[in-house]
Amino acid sequence: MLINLMRTMGIALLMTLVVELFVILLLTKESERKAVTWLVFLLANLLTNPAAVYLATIGHSYLTFLPDLVIQIPIEIAVVIVEWIVYKGYLSRPLLCAIAANLCSWGVGIMYNRLF
User: What gap in Å lies between CA 5 and CA 2, rounded to an integer?
Assistant: First the structure.
């Protein structure tokens, strides 16, 4: 179980970083694309993604009577709020970036889980 959880967390983090980086690149101004912004992006995702994946995995394991969305949506809302707060000092549209990036990476995660 632990090995599967670690593999799942690693795949989720890698996919999240790739997808969200692409979305952030699309939504930010060129002047915002500097080293400190990317460090903030990386740290925000290292903070939120493993916690979100762990909580969702535990929720799915113990709250089997609940639909997946009932478990995932509150977790994703919390992730968006945390990333929005982190991005506030670095991006001109931090809420848009947090929402769009997380919707895209969440959607990719759902597709990945359905395929594999």
Answer: 5
